[in-house]
Structures are given as structure tokens and as C-alpha cells.
């Protein structure tokens, strides 16, 4: 038996041996093959992991490795120990081999099947989509084990794409019994009780403009002329009047973050009883609202505004198509067909004329003082009874869309101003949408573009920068008028940071506004719902409501998860759809992004995205990261360029579409 001195010496020897080894910690990163990497925590450097070492870990694992050097003087890693594993559950497919069952995981970078413990299959069949949990990590013997938690569905099951993405992205689509119990207590009596203490605006001819199938209508408009311009009233549905703070309904709304708009269906943020009925600004029914009344000059300035709690009544549920038909051609028939009471028609068409003038003035103000982005073409997937794509419909931006857009932006600007004038606290005055400028890693590229392109074309401007909002607006205005074979303005705006929800006010560089928030969709977006709570707390003289940065991040992450679910479902369906089209069809497309490996292109007729690889083109190509340009021996490709492509292949597993260029 060793004495204490010997034990001490042995421990010291182990420490010395460990200290002499090149040990480091980092996070495992997979690849499209069986090998992987560990990204070191201290330097960010990627250390190669062989296929054998990757058998011991999962992508995302926090590990300690020993860094060694091979005979070619290349560093590689050997797993020393597992610190933490993030992968606990995942979604995938059941695969059979011999008499054993495996899960083929849908986890980025994880290129192996995982053994399903006998008796933990839940009757899943070959090819079924399943949700699994990890029973045994592979760190000890390289042999992980998993259990099937539930069967999502079979490959041929109708609507499997939606079911799969709901499960994968953990979209919340059921109401708890506590929520159902609360809903049972919420009736239209709330409208009568709350309305008694609010301003009665039910005689004003408010109107809603939305898609014909929309049920959760959360904004209505009314406008009149004044001596100096117009008076615009924007009524926003007030679901907060029906939902108690800290109730089960509100807690669920916070977790959902937003309504989820799948093709052909909606998973509502709020119970449908509230979202589509009691709160929705349905026609000819009294509804509770926050009304933002704006006084707008002929030049599009918002001269003043106020926000009040009111009872309103929509006098007509109008569609984008019917309003555009009237605005563009003076044809009232589409509007008239939608009205419950034809007597409302004269007042509504008069208001629409004012709304058209207001939207033009507001748009001109933003053009002169802020930033206006180019209209983006959207597409709607029309599904058949089998929940597959029957048709992809191009959605044109009409004059009606522009009316709604300008009025909502103006009202949201006022809401941001209201929060700043009546802050919840000095550190967290409200809940804002911040867009903080050019990404740090792209600033040198923008400086090069300014020096080589923008500055020479604008010698009258002594200094061109982008660090302040004012400088950035000037830069984009100059870039817009600078002659260039590469469109400079979209090239610059692609380098912006993503917008963020923030308790503190900050500029919105993307819109060119000093501060911005949204409160016009409280039925559909939880951050708008929270802004309503904040505004009403001040209006009613109650304690201020604030949010923490963590709460703002949680809302944003929930909304991002919903977008990812919808995007994945749509991409899955598009992969199926494009394979059903004629194989030799040639399409007009627009390049959206270039990389060193090729370029992404979007088909003009249906919005389907696909990748064109330089490996499939003759000659070598070089990529200019500053100007996002891909140049070959004969052809050059840049963002916004028109090209012609045809389908090359579809990787259904990765949900990726590849095109090939047609010269």
C-alpha cells in the first residue's frame, strides 16, 4: 500500500504528464462526410477529427482533445474526455439492417445511424419518421443507443411534411387544459365591460385590407382630409384586454412567439376563439382597439399623433385585390361585393382615396429622409388534397399592399416614439426592433467598395462613411446613383447585421430610421402584444412594464424557430414539385448570392431556389469576396444577374435543389 508521500508524488507525476501534453477544449463540428472537426474555444481554430474519433462524439459536444501532429506536419485531435453533450433528442427515420433497427438522424453533421435499443421501437416501421432520445452516449465505446419517443408518421402519409417540421422544430400546436379552461371564461362580455370606459369610435368607417381568407384581422384604417394634409387613424386589435397577465394563455403566447403560417393552414399564437373572433376586427361588430391617430402633412411628415383606447367597428372586410381594383381603375364592384351593408360604400371609397394620397406622401417622405427597400416578390404555395403543391402563385405587390405597408410603418414609428417619451425604465424603455449596421467582419469590404466605386463617382462629397445612421443613408443614396456593372446598393445592404429585438432603442439601419418597433400585429406576434401591454400600462397609470434582454432574445428565438419550420416544409414540398416538372425545362432565374463554390439562383416564375456549382461548369472560377463576384474563363456571375438554368438534381434527404447553367 502506498504511503501519503508516494500518493502525492504519483498525483504530481500525473499533473506533470498532463501539463506536458497539448490539451485544449472546443466544440465538435460535423461535415458531409464521416470526419469532423473541433473548433477550439480559445482560438476558434478548427482541429481535424478522424472518422474513428467522430464515432465517439456527436456534433455540438463540448470536449477536451489532445492536439497531435502527423508526419505531414498537420494537426489532428484525439478525444480526451466529454465535457457536455447538447444532443438529447432528435428527429429522424427508422432504418433496418439485418434484424436490428437504427435511427437515421436529421442532425447537421451527424453522418451515422444510431442503434435503437430493442423494445424501444414503439412499433415504428422501416422508413417511418420518428422522434428519439439518446440513451447512451458513444464516448465510452463508440456505440450510442437511442429510444423512439413517438412515431411522427410514414413517408406516404398525407401532410407528413408539416407533421415532421412541427416535431423537428418543436412547434407548439396544442392547447393545454388550463388554457381551454381560461378560454371558456372569456366571452364578448369583455367587450361590453371594457368598452364602457373607452372612446366610442364605432361610427367612423374603419376598413380592413387583407387576404380574402384571413380571419385574424388585427388592423383597420380610416382617413380624412385636413387643412394641412390628412388625419389617419390606425386601429389595432387589442387582445391584451381579454388575456390576464401571467395567465396560461399569455405564457403560451410567449413560448410560441408568433403565429405559424404554413401553406394552407395556421397555428395561431393565441387560441382561435380570441384570435379569429373576439379580438379580430371582423366587419360590423364592436371590437376593442388601440387607435393611433396621426396628423400628416402634405409632405408626408407626421406632425403629431396620439394613442387612445377605443371601441371601433370595421365597416368592411376588403381584400387586396378589390382595393387595388378600385384604386387603380376606379372599379367599385369588387368592394361592393364584399360589404354586408352596401350603404357603407361611399364612406369607404372616400376614405380609400385619402389613404391612397397618404401612402404616397408617406412613401415620398421615407424616400427623402429614410430608406425604402425594393419590393420583394413573394409566392404562395397552393396545395392539393394530398397536401402537395398543386400550383405556386406569384403574389404581386399592389397599390393596396402599399397603402397598408405605409400606414403600418407610420403607426409603428409613432409607437416607438411613444415608448421613448414614456419609458418603462431608463435602461429598458420598451421593446424595439434594432438594426445596428454593417457587420464587423464586413466593414473592411465596405470601405474598399467606397474607395474604389462610390467615392470616385461622387467627388463633391468630402467624406463617405457608414458608422452613423445619417452616414449610412447617404452612402446608400450615393451607391444607388453610382454607375457600376455590379448593383452596389444591394451589395452593401447584404452586409448588414440581422435585426434584433431590444429593450433599448437603437437605430434601424435597414429602414433608415432612428428607432422603430412594431405593435400592429398583436394577435400574431408576441413582441407586438408586449408593446400593447407597455403602452396601455402608461395610458392607464399603472406600473411600467419592462422586458429584459433575455426575454427579448427568447421571443426572437421562438419566432425564428417558427420560420425555420415553415421554410423547411416549403423547401421539402418544392423539392417534390420541381421533380414533377419536365426534366428538360429551361427557366429564367435571378442570382441571389455568390460563393466560392457557385451561386444561388431563384426561378422567376415560382421562386424556387437552387444552387449552381462551379464543379459543373467548364474552367476554373475565382471568387471576389468584396464584390461577391464569381469569375471564370468566359463567364462572370454577380448578384441580381439574370441567368437561364435547368434542373440538375434534387437531394431529397438534404432538401437541396441543384441547377445547371444554360448558356
TrEMBL record:
Keywords: Cytoplasm, Exonuclease, Hydrolase, Nuclease, RNA-binding. GO terms for biological process: mRNA catabolic process. Pfam families: CSD2, OB_RNB, RNB, S1. PROSITE patterns: RIBONUCLEASE_II (PS01175), S1 (PS50126). The keyword Nuclease applies. It is found in: Cytoplasm. GO terms for cellular component: cytosol. This is exoribonuclease II.
